[in-house]
Design a protein that fits this description.
It is a single chain. This protein is α/β, with parallel strands linked by helices and 852 residues long. It has 4 domains: 47-196 and 391-451, Rossmann fold (3-Layer(aba) Sandwich); 200-329 and 465-505, Response regulator (Rossmann fold), CATH 3.40.50; 528-575, no CATH class; 585-667 and 701-764 and 801-847. Helices cover 43% and strands 15% of the residues. The strands form 9 sheets. The protein has an 8-stranded mixed β-sheet, with helices on both faces. The chain has a 6-stranded mixed β-sheet with strand order 1-5-2-6-7-8, sandwiched between helices. A 3-stranded mixed β-sheet has the order 27-29-28. α17 (585-610) runs antiparallel to α19 (622-638), α19 packs antiparallel against α20 (648-681) and α22 (744-767) runs antiparallel to α23. The longest helix is centred in the C-terminal third of the chain and has 34 residues, at 648-681. Keywords: Cell membrane, G-protein coupled receptor, Glycoprotein, Membrane, Receptor, Signal, Transducer, Transmembrane, Transmembrane helix. GO terms for molecular function: G protein-coupled receptor activity.
Length: 852
């Protein structure tokens, strides 16, 4: 910008001194006659025509403009046939209007067309020239204001900003055909600016939707060093907020070497460019020289239809480019009109000669100093000269056409004003012989007309209706690049419906039919999630497997529903495995052990019943023995209740059956212990304790002790009974069906009562362990209670720490182990004597009174 400011200053010193008089006369300031109006530098218009009303035209007929030297000499680098076509379109439109009997009847339009050379500084020069006269001899032009009502221009936004600021003090409206910078919508800075091209707010919205649509999440941005590029990039970044698209880099032309190095090393294979074709030409020349390929270009409307890049040499590098172009239209007479422009009809126009040199590579002028071979200047213009003869789908030229007609319709409406009903002070109208530019602007703001079935009007900011064609660069039959329309962006439609693309018609970079991939990190596979890398954009991430119980949609892991769990790949939720102590290997083993224990107990019962009249059965209180065997049978069988799917009834039966049967068993053993202790104590003189421990009293003791447990169980069932529950806390991948105890207090009271009975039995049996006799049952009761207590003391920590269905297995095992302990300790010695040592099954032997 500092270089531009310096150039503007140099030019101001050398050129702007020409018109203090002309500007002062425009503002009605009288100056001294001694002041001489002189042109400091010649700048002839490209084309000029007189008329009742004159409009200006500014077009970039040359591009790649070098900076001026200190003598304000400009050296255009290359002629642009495309911009020349735009200028001819303006001339055609003026001729059509002048020939129309309906539009501006009895009036004619004139024009002055100047070359801006696609550069802001020369754009300023053209703007000043269009305001002033044509030569020193044209004294009315130099001594008074130019009869200029409007300007059609400029192409680039940077040039339009300069031209608009120059025209603003004179309140001359300008209509741009190709300046799309959103900055130009500011009515405070650019109050006289209009345009027939949508502003970049719509273009960047369309480009953002394009990037999101094709999942290009890692893109590069390249812009020109001007307001157009800066505002466009800012707008695109604003549109990309909240999307998944990240910007890999932002570079600025003309830093070509730096940009190319970044592009070559970056993972971003999609590059969005906001630049004009003049700036793109040297950049692409360096790009092609370094043979960089594989880039999917996304072009802004400023160069997406630039015919200068349609040569076959560009296709390997630019083929597949996609972008948003100005909506095309139809100009019926344009093709025929362009063919009338040739060196034969315009022998003195240097631009026409340059056109021929650009199209045919020959010089039509014999006096030209060109090194090109001579030609007649009457060669036929062919369709292959697309840079100039592309009239089948005019875009920018169509905008020029609409802009001229907008001025004509506005002027027509102004001239039809009826006195007394006008829009100005006191309802006045403009004077037809002295129309001021600001009066025309009033009508331009309100103009509304239809051309080629398209409605043209301007909003309060001077913008037109936002339409874009989606353009794709494809190889033509001759090898050149052709611009193929593959979609439409309609900014008037609701959000989300604006962009319509025919994807099957698109040819991508590298002549590929598949959509290119441009990502910083490849999408995570199902079952993993994104982990953003520290200090990098969110589009750059690592893929981390999901935790158990979660699945991913390639971005984040989510928990499965309550009764579901993730599969091994973490790709889907499957129903959780339901576990309980079933009849599997463990359940069958416990069942067999339980059945064996019950059968052994019944077998012992049968042995005892068969030998009920023998001494060992009678001495050990056969009735209590049968009660104990009955209770042990129930103890063995109650362990079966713990196997199988828990139900409401089975849960209540488990603990109550277990507690009551064990309480009955221990009560019987307690009664037997008391009887044994009392029997040997009764042998002492004067002791008649046995009369208090007869059969009735023994039954009463058993009943009373068991009844206490029954009462505890009844209270438990009434207050908070056990119930089936689904436990997911221990192992979240499974649902463990178990019986919740309901009331932990009741559960431990039940176990505590059994433990109390066992401890009482143990103490009494321990006291009677040294009583006389060969078969002192108190010793076996003591040992059985030791085993019983050891089993249940070990049960408590094992039960608390056992997971899920294993808690039921632990409790079942404790029941079986303690039952086997009681069975073997109490009845194995007796069965041994009954079955294997019948000779010892005598009262004398048992009492220790056998004869030696």
């Amino acid at each position: 910008m500092s270089l531009l400011a310096l150039s503007l200053f140099l030019y101001s010193v050398s050129v702007l001194t020409l018109t203090y008089n002309s500007i002062s006369s425009f503002t009605s300031t009288v100056t001294s006659a001694a002041t001489v109006c002189t042109l400091q530098n010649s700048f002839e218009p490209s084309f000029v025509a007189k008329g009742d009303f004159v409009i200006g035209g500014i077009f970039p007929l040359h591009y790649n403009q070098e900076m001026p030297d200190l003598n304000s000499t400009y050296r255009p680098y290359r002629f642009d046939p495309r911009a020349f076509r735009w200028a001819q379109t303006m001339r055609l439109a003026v001729e059509e209007i002048n020939q129309s009997p309906e539009l501006l009847p009895n009036y004619t339009l004139g024009y002055k067309i100047f070359d801006s050379c696609a550069y802001p500084l020369t754009g300023q020069r053209a703007a000043l020239a269009v305001l002033n006269g044509l030569s020193e001899d044209d004294s009315p032009m130099c001594s008074s204001s130019s009869p200029l009502l409007a300007v059609i221009g400029e192409s680039g936004s940077a040039q339009s900003i300069v031209v608009s600021r120059i025209l603003q003090p004179f309140r001359i409206p300008m209509i741009s055909y190709f300046s799309s910078c959103a900055c130009l919508t500011d009515r405070r800075k650019y109050p006289t600016f209009f345009r027939v091209i949508p502003n970049d707010d719509y273009q960047v919205r369309a480009i953002a939707q394009l990037l999101v649509r094709f999942n290009w999440t890692w893109v590069g941005l390249v812009r020109g060093d001007h307001e157009y590029g800066r505002f466009a990039v800012q707008g695109l970044l604003r549109e990309l907020q909240g999307t998944k698209v990240c910007v890999a880099y932002q570079e600025m032309i003309p830093l070509n070497v730096q940009i190319l190095n970044v592009m070559r090393s970056s993972l971003a294979k999609v590059v969005v460019v906001f630049s004009a074709e003049g700036e793109m030409t040297p950049f692409l020349r360096d790009y092609m020289a370094q043979n960089i390929t594989g880039i999917q270009w996304v072009a802004s409307e400023a160069w997406v239809t630039a015919s200068v890049f349609t040569g076959s040499e560009y296709y390997p590098y630019l083929g597949g480019t996609i972008g948003f172009g100005i909506r095309k239209g139809q100009i019926s007479r344009l093709s025929d009109y362009l063919q009338t422009v040739n060196p034969h009809n315009y022998p003195n126009n240097p631009l026409v000669q340059e056109l021929w040199e650009a199209l045919y590579g020959c010089s039509p002028s014999l006096s030209s100093a060109s090194q090109l071979s001579p030609c007649s200047g009457q060669e036929s213009l062919l369709e292959q000269h697309s840079a100039y003869m592309n009239t089948s789908s005019p875009r920018v030229a169509y905008n020029v056409y609409k802009a001229v007609y907008a001025v004509a319709h506005s002027l027509h409406n102004l001239l039809r004003c009826q006195p007394g009903s006008g829009p100005f002070q006191n309802n006045s109208c403009a004077l037809s012989n002295s129309i001021l530019p600001w009066q025309l602007q009033h009508y331009l703001q309100e103009v509304k007309f239809t051309i080629a079935e398209e409605e043209v009007n301007f909003d309060l900011k001077g913008d037109s209706i936002p339409y874009y064609d989606v353009i794709n660069w494809q190889r033509g039959t001759s090898g050149n690049i052709e611009f193929v329309n593959v979609g439409l962006f309609d900014g008037t439609k609701p959000a989300g419906d604006e962009l319509v693309i025919q994807e099957d018609r698109i040819m991508w970079a590298g002549h590929q039919s598949e959509v290119p991939v441009s990502v910083c990190s490849a999408s995570c596979l199902p079952g993993s999630r994104k982990a953003v890398r520290r200090g990098e954009p969110v589009c750059c991430f690592d893929c981390v497997p999901c935790d158990s119980g979660k699945t991913s949609n390639q971005t984040k892991c989510t928990f499965c529903p309550e009764n579901f769990w993730s599969n091994e790949d973490r790709t889907s939720c499957i129903p959780k495995k339901v576990e309980f102590l079933a009849y599997d290997s463990l359940g069958i083993a416990l069942t067999v052990i339980s059945a064996v224990g019950a059968c052994l107990t019944i077998a012992v019962f049968a042995v005892f019943f068969h030998h009920r009249n023998t001494a060992i059965v009678r001495v050990n209180n056969s009735e209590l023995s049968f009660f104990i065997l009955f209770a042990l049978t129930l103890c063995f069988l109650c362990s079966l209740v713990f196997i199988g799917e828990p139900t409401f009834w089975s849960c209540m039966l488990r603990h109550t059956a277990f507690s009551i049967t064990f309480s009955l068993c221990i009560s019987c053993i307690l009664g037997k212990t008391l009887v044994v202790l009392a029997a040997f104590t009764a042998t002492r003189p004067g002791n008649n304790i046995m009369k208090w421990l007869g059969p009735k009293q023994q039954r009463a003791i058993i009943f009373s002790c068991t009844l206490v447990q029954v009462v505890i169980c009844a209270a438990w069932l009434i207050d908070a009974p056990p119930y089936p529950s689904r436990n997911t806390k221990y192992e979240r991948s499974k649902i463990i069906l178990e019986c919740s105890v309901g009331s932990s207090l009741a559960f431990w009271c039940v176990l505590g009562y059994i433990g109390l009975q066992a401890c009482l039995c143990f103490v009494l049996a321990f006291l009677a362990r040294k009583l006389p006799g060969n078969f002192n049952e108190a010793k076996f009761i003591t040992f059985s209670m030791l085993i019983f207590c050891a089993v249940w003391l070990a049960f408590i920590p094992a039960y608390i720490s056992s997971p899920g269905n294993y808690a039921d297995a632990v409790e079942s095992f404790a029941i079986l182990a303690s039952s086997f302990g009681l069975l073997f300790c109490l009845f194995a010695p007796k069965c041994y004597i009954i079955l294997l040592k019948p000779e010892k099954n005598t009262k004398q032997h048992l009492m220790g009174k056998e004869k030696k």
